[in-house]
Amino acid sequence: MLRNEPQITPALVAEHGLKPDEYQRILTLIGREPTITELGIFSAMWNEHCSYKSSRLHLRKLPTKAPWVIQGPGENAGVIDIGDGLACVFKMESHNHPSYIEPYQGAATGVGGILRDVFTMGARPIACLNLLRFGSPDHPKTRHLVSGVVAGVGGYGNSFGVPTVGGSVNFHTRYDGNILVNAMAVGIARTDSIFYAKATGVGRPIVYLGSKTGRDGIHGATMASASFEANAEEKRPTVQVGDPFSEKLLLEACLEIMGKGCVIAIQDMGAAGLTSSAVEMGAKGGLGIELDLDALPCREEGMSAYEMMLSESQERMLMVLDPAKEAEAEAVFRKWGLDFAIVGKTTDTLRFVVKHQGEVKADLPIMELGDEAPLYDRPHVPTPPKPIIAADSVVPPRSNRDALLHLIGSPDLCSKRWVWEQYDHLILGNTVQQPGGDAAVVRVGDGPKGLAMCTDVTQRYCEADPVQGGRQAVAECWRNLTAVGATPLALTDNLNFGNPEKPEYMGQFVGCLEGIGDAARALDFPIVSGNVSLYNETQGRGILPTPSIGGVGRIDDVAKAATLSFKGAGEAILLVGETQGWLGQSMYLWQVCGREEGAPPPVDLAAERRNGDFVRGLIGAGHVTAVHDLSDGGLAVALAEMAMAGGVGATLTATAPQQHGFLFGEDQARYVVTAQPQHVAAIEALALAAGVPLQVIGQTGAEALTLPGEAPIVIADLVNAHEGWLPAYMAAAPE
Amino acid sequence: MKAAVLLFPGLNREGDAMRALEQASGLKPALVWHAEHELPAGTDLVLVPGGFSYGDYLRCGAIAGRANIMDAVRAHAARGGLVIGICNGFQILCESGLLPGVLMRNRDLRFICKMQHLSVERADTPFTTAYRKGQTIKVAIAHGEGNYEADEETIRRLEGDGRVAFRYCDAQGAVGGAANPNGSTNDIAGIYSEKLNVLGLMPHPENLIDPLVGGTDGRGLFASIASFSRAA
């Protein structure tokens, strides 16, 4: 018997984020008016965040396969084989809107959600990373948001007990009203014990585990699928509250019962809570699901079926257990002090049935809830090409020496020590390379194998040319992994864009995806998991298109990983790759000349591959003593970073007709390496044979960095400029 | 020597501590669940590791300090048995009454994780014989509440009785000033009980046992325990 509580009106439908034609689709599908609980379920399943209705069409074009890929997109996280019977499980996910509204809890639950995705698959998390984008430092809310987000990321990860080993923090006025918080987690499992959401067997009990269900986060996923208006703060009640203590217990309890062979299927409750997890388990297994909400552990009394189905309370799991091992599993959960309740069963009806207090509150076709979700081919227009800016048309406004000091102390290029010192990056005792390098290196167990990992995107390139920007994000991530000596294996993407209903923003999405696909194919670097976050705009203005790329690579012996610090005096400095002096969209043009203009540097994927494979070969052969990828700020910034990290200076001797282009150009596919002088001839011969451009550009030594024809910059001055900006900014009184 | 590592819900450095005991002391520690009433028979050393027992809700270490197993630890300490509490373990020892004082929020109100130098105040206790008196060692810190405070009389007694184990210093060994990361009284990073058999410290020597991961200055503490057990 189905009975309507509140009347379903067009206004109520609209409040649930469903368009009139989408509601019509519901009516056609079920042949009657939905109950309020059913309307809530459709709203949860068919919003952008859960249904990927604007993006699915384009995501299908991405390369997702390779011989080492065990599980590509579509599960809680991607899984790749890293040898020796071990798998790496990883994914990145956004928590943008909640973090703007309530920065501490928004960021914390973002970290909690992605950790849960990883251990749901049977992996023990070994590292977290993130990619954060804030508004202009001058915006009155930025300081508050940085402070809250960083504390939230740390507060969750530190307590949970996983090292946060890397990340990226940038600022731009286009994020003023819509910051980005993208969290990535990496875990390790045995290849023979990976767990999936697919339920099997009819009549098996469905078990609810973890924290109790409360009224927090109702409609969180719907909020994440809408643009912000001026009243964003009013949405604070839709933000969930994190409890890392409960999640740590949930981790230990889940891994314990997985180890005992109790688990048949498992799905965490993330966006759209119980609704999404139950439907997913049933639909993937081709089974119906019947839930009895009377058994649901609730935090407060009097919760309705609607609220229970849409709550996004954190630290909860849904499982199908082996009936023979149910008691054993329950004992483990009781030991850890967690709730354990049988809340339903699998059926052969292919219906999703929800009962509460003796009434049927929902009765829907389970496959169609996912399969029949709207799918849109949104109109999209390409971004018009920007003019190429020749270096000789850019008049240097100040000396190269001053420009360098300015750049390394600018918000995007300055040291982020203030941030990562609030993250426990050392716990578990395997952090071989900590934040501050090209990629983090984490040993797997007692080694010698390790994983390199990093997060990257250059959003101003994506804005100027989405295709090249998408390529560059993947290429830079691949380069960063290469620069520590790792073999890049796979990536996760977190696609943050504006309103897909506007053709120019949809065009950015389509263009970036084309570029990501090109690069992933050319570099054998498949996409194994990801997340799409659209409607990132405030009062009609979209963010810079920001397809975050999180990459993982394998290092066979972590003791041989390369670092970027200069190791000692008298070593040769070599530049790998071709330098034209590309200043369009460069940090130099933006931060030194005050111009955000031009076409971004083109990405030659064949050159990326050739130059990267060459550098990885040099590292493996032990020919080089330091390696650094060239990216934002170009050669000069890279040299400064290498000098600061090693406490060893350098003299650059190479010159070019447009010296500022040579020093600060952001041409792609380049690295700086150092080598003992006696190895230089051999390296040059290898480069010649491989067709890789290589140039000796100077040598290390002394306590200053000296650019040709300019006064030396003492390392201490570099360090002061580099380390000073962020702590001073954060300590300044808010206006 | 037999070692036991305690496990309270929410601790997360128990694995790091067990690895350090295995690799630097040659011990095979037992992992003991908080609800137990007894330590394994013949336990010589109890290590209370770091983390966030009970989520640090209520007050750091307050709930764990009153757990069943802590009665057994107090009895063990009263018999002269060795006890180490690291980070949250230090906070738990303070809450359980095994050590005086309290760990307050860091001076800057932020969690801080970084490499930190310590001055070894004495090298004649069961935990420090592998170091030299006055030696500067580099270990890690990772805490939000490591600001040690106690009443004046307690501080006077700790100082007078030589019960300060480690102090925060810079790379050259100069104690205090900017080298104090959290504002703790007299730059105290760790203290001993009256009989010097209980040590509590905020830094993490267990994370500095490997040249590939930051360095090996933490090994001395575990090596000291191993040689103490051989001498005993």
Helix-strand blueprint:
The complex is a heterodimer of chains A (735) and B (232).
Chain A: H1 10-15, H2 20-30, H3 36-46, H4 48-51, H5 56-59, E1 69-71, E2 78-83, E3 86-94, H6 96-101, H7 103-120, E4 124-134, H8 142-160, E5 164-171, E6 180-190, E7 205-210, H9 220-223, H10 244-259, E8 263-268, H11 273-285, E9 288-292, H12 305-310, E10 316-321, H13 326-335, E11 339-347, E12 351-356, E13 359-365, H14 366-371, H15 400-408, H16 417-420, E14 431-433, E15 440-443, E16 450-456, H17 459-464, H18 466-483, E17 487-496, H19 503-522, E18 527-533, E19 537-538, E20 541-542, E21 546-555, E22 572-576, H20 587-592, H21 605-620, E23 626-629, H22 634-646, E24 650-652, H23 659-664, E25 671-675, H24 680-690, E26 694-700, E27 704-706, E28 713-714, H25 715-731
Parallel strand pairs in A: 4-5, 9-12, 17-18, 24-27
Antiparallel strand pairs in A: 1-2, 2-3, 3-6, 4-6, 7-10, 7-11, 8-10, 9-11, 12-13, 14-15, 15-16, 16-21, 17-21, 19-20, 22-25, 22-26, 23-25, 24-26, 27-28
Helix pairs in contact in A: 7-8, 7-10, 8-10, 10-13, 18-19, 18-21, 21-24
Chain B: E1 3-7, H1 14-25, E2 30-33, E3 45-48, H2 68-78, E4 82-86, H3 88-95, E5 102-104, E6 112-120, E7 136-143, E8 147-149, H4 152-160, E9 164-169, E10 188-192, E11 198-201, H5 219-231
Parallel strand pairs in B: 1-2, 1-3, 3-4, 4-11
Antiparallel strand pairs in B: 5-8, 6-7, 6-9, 9-10, 10-11
Helix pairs in contact in B: 1-5
